Amino acid sequence: MLVVMEQGATEPQIQHIIDRLVSMGFTVHRSTGVTHTLLGGVGPVADFDPADFEVMEGVKECHRIVSPYKLASRHFRPDGTVVKIGDVEIGDGKVVVMAGPCSVENVDQIGQIAEIVAGGGAKVIRGGAFKPRTSPYSFQGLGEDGLKMMREAASRNGLLVISEVMDQTQIPMMCDYVDILQVGARNMQNYNLLRQLGETRKPVLVKRGISATIEELLLSAEYVMAGGNYDVILCERGIRTFESYTRNTMDISAIPVVKSLSHLPIVADPSHGTGRRDKVIPMARAAVAAGADGLLVEVHQDPDHALSDGAQSLKPAQFEEMMQQIRIIASAVGRTV
Ligand code: PEP
Ligand code: MN
């Protein structure tokens, strides 16, 4: 359920409602907006009457939320969530570009790519240190050494760091190196991992699973938020369909759908979405036009020799071209990069 407090409701009035909800068995999540405070009550409580709350002092309205996700629902924060990390804000209307290799390979590789993506206007460097490879014989990533290399390259170039966490045991160590913890498509429904990420206070980016519905994606975000970590960013990265020309089918429509169902920022990954570098720029343009809050793209200085996902990695000149083009698209839809 959701209780919307009156504009100017006093702290004692808010506390009274919280106490009442807790006594009924709800877990209360508070969202203090610019004008209104919202109280989300989550729990298996079926027999309550919203009218009981609507007559309480300081309450504007009370609703039963019927969607299976509550905290991820747009009702909980009608104005939208902005995830702030240093001076980078994801969800405030600016398109935030996160770019880098699929995998961190060595010091020179990540150092060069950090310079390239920072020079082009990216705010965040991406790179996997723990890789969820389809084959156990493929390159599995450099682990903590890779994170160290990426953190140093990022710091030299004024970038934030995002990297995939594959297992909950990696969380404490990874928090020393990364600014955003990425949950990969294959782990979108790893509920132990999601719950544990809910206990951290690091932003989490949840990628859509290859066969996940939008509702399932929002429920995965709900797992993280239920632990009290509201800094969740969603990512559309393509889903598996009968089409085999592209690696996945980039579901651009998920962007406006998520925007209406949820307050969480959503970024688009056209690299995994298409699997082909010649299709990345058009899908990046489309994602920005559709309202994506950011892009997650793979860039490599020598993609033909990349240890993973070379075929979908942009060359440096193509990354430049993408940045120029999305600046034009962004301004056409009243946004900036
Ligand atoms: C990645 O970002 O490199 C990755 C493995 O992505 P996904 O989980 O979307 O396949
Ligand atoms: Mn990849």
Descriptive key words:
337 residues; alpha/beta; 14 strands; 18% strand; 34% helix; binds phosphoenolpyruvate; four-stranded antiparallel β-sheet; 11 helices
How would you describe what is shown here?
It is a single chain. 34% of the residues lie in helices and 18% in strands. It has 337 residues and is an alpha/beta fold. The strands form three sheets. The protein has an eight-stranded parallel β-barrel, surrounded by five helices. Strands 2-3-1-4 form a four-stranded antiparallel β-sheet. A two-stranded antiparallel sheet has the order 5-6. α3 (107-120) links the parallel β7 (96-100) and β8. The longest helix has 17 residues, at 316-332. The chain is elongated, with a radius of gyration of 21 Å. It starts with a strand and ends in a 5-residue tail after the last helix. The mean pLDDT is 96. The chain binds phosphoenolpyruvate and manganese (II) ion. Phosphoenolpyruvate (PEP) is lined by residues 102, 128, 132, 184-186, 207, 237, 272.
